[in-house]
Amino acid sequence: MSILSERLKYFVEQKGYSIADLAGRSGIERATLYQYLKGSRPLKNHVHLETLMAELQLTPDERQEVLEAYEITQIGQVQYNRRCKVREILNSLLTIEEKTSVVPKLEQEMYLRTAEGQRLIQGELEINRLVSNIIYENVIRGGELRLLTQPDNDLLMESLLLLCDDNIQTKVTQIICLEAGGGRDGCHNLENIRRILRYGVGIRRYEPRYYYGRPAEHYGVMNVMPYLVVTDRCAVQISSDWKAAILHGEPAVVAYFRYFFEKMCRQSHTFMTSIDGFLGNQAKWGQQYLQITALSNILEICSGLCSVQFWDETLIRKYINPGIPDCESVIKNYSAYVSVLYQVKKRRHTTVLMNASFVERFIQDGILREYPSIFFKGAISATDRQLLIERILKAVDEGWYHIRLLPGENFPLYYHWEILLSRGESMLFQYAHQNQFKIFQFTEADILEAVYDYLASISVGKDTLDDAQSAAQLREWMEKYLG
Q1: What gap in Å lies between CA 349 and CA 470, rounded to an integer?
Q2: pTM for this one?
């Protein structure tokens, strides 16, 4: 018996209906309904499902239970879990506001002054103080901070996020353990994405790497000192329960731990690469990216029109803020980038999921909210808005560009974020806020497939407008707001 059959049978019994009564009220053949409730016949007819829920007079919560059971029955528990996890991650992406960083003063080196030889540290409070002092020192003196720990080590990672924000002297390299296939529920690796992106936004020089294994075994109670923090001056091994640590200060010993960590780096893979895309860096990096990536099957999700490939040098010169540094170079880089991007995408198939509410607001007022606020000198004129939309509609008519409008209340992504995913190749997260413009690239196959599957599923959702409907909606808004 499937999960859906169990839920339907439960509600039928709870409401006091017999199969004969329900069959007569719903218009579904008695034998068919019997098979649905016994699980001997899968319920794939969505009209039948809606009819049954209506006749059973389910509450909104009960209805949601049945719909979840229906989806699990259609695609399986693991795939359902992964789709839910991806949506949860996209909904939770944080915006780290622009702020002035204050580098803390190193008021004490209670452990680091006496770091020659070895020292045993006991107690969570003492270990936390030790780790904080190590981070403080590294931020002030600069250098590389090497971590063998999982991203869910909140105390350590949040301290880094607080202290390394906007600090370009400190490089943080972290090696994490991923599970092949995403673990039993398929979601273990996905959970790391949320944290890694948060640290990528907040830590200027952050390089996470990964290897495949069993995190529960590596960091479990059967390992004596699984956590490792290494700097240029010391190394710290920490127990799995975070209640004991050994601080190493002997130069030869520290050098060995650095060698050991570098050896692990060579045996691991890059989990995320990042680039500060402001001042034309995105354009220069983008041109290189297009040369090495096939972009054969592209899915994008963006709050606005995602119109960058339909710009040209004339529009860029007209609207770019002339006060940004090296403006002429930025114009040339972006002009070259959008030209190549247009040609590459025209030879492929691109599907873009858009927030209908944001698209309508852009057509109405011409403000590009999904880009850094200081990048443009003002709103796009009505004439140029119409020009961009006409270019998009022409691409849709040519068959290589597909647009899908989603209702604003169902759109899963905050407007400061944009995702471009080329199936089986790479996934780009773009973050733009005030003077921050960053790009994060992932290539791990399990994560790429999970995100692609989720985006593909909502691109054909019941509330999503298809190409023809979306194009008609754009034309309607264009007529309404632009005349």
Answers
A1: 17
A2: 0.88
Checking 44-52 for CB contacts under 8 A at 24+ apart, the result is 44/74, 46/70, 51/26, 51/27, 52/8, 52/22, 52/26, 52/28
Q: Residue 87 falls within a domain, yes or no? A: no
- In a shared domain, residues 300 and 322: yes
> Which residue's entry shows tokens 């019997």?
34
Which range is most confident: 92-96, 114-118, 122-126, 388-392?
A: 388-392
Cα-only R_g, the chain? 27
Tokens read off for 371: 């880009």
Q: Please report, as a single letter, which amino acid is at residue 379.
A: A
Give CA–CA dist 51/425, Å, rounded: 43
| Residue found by looking up tokens 């649905």 in the block | 36
- Alpha-carbon distance 263 to 354, whole Å? 44
Q: Letter for the amino acid at 259? A: Y
Angle of helix 60-75 relative to helix 46-55, nearest 10 degrees? 150
96-to-162, 228, 414 alpha-carbon distances in Å: 11, 28, 12
| CA–CA separation, 429 and 301 (whole Å) | 10
Q: How many domains does the chain have?
A: 3
Helices (H), 243-381: 251-266, 281-292, 313-319, 327-346, 356-365
Q: Count CA within 13 A, CB hemisphere, residue 285.
A: 17
* CATH number for the domain that contains residue 175: 3.30.870.10
pLDDT band at 94 (very low <50, low <70, confident <90, very high): low
> Comparing C-alpha atoms, which of 419, 404, 421 is closest to residue 461?
404
Q: How far is CA 16 from the centre of its chain?
A: 46
Cβ pair 439, 185 in contact under 8 A: no
| 81, part of any domain | no
Residues 6+ apart with CB under 8 A from 88: none
- Condensed to tens digits (0 to 9), the pLDDT of residues 181-193 reads 788 888 989 989 9
For 50, the token pair is 């809606």
Tell me the C-alpha to C-alpha distance, in Å, between residue 475 and each of 238, 392, 397: 61, 11, 13
Q: Label the pairing between strands 349-355 and 118-122.
A: unpaired
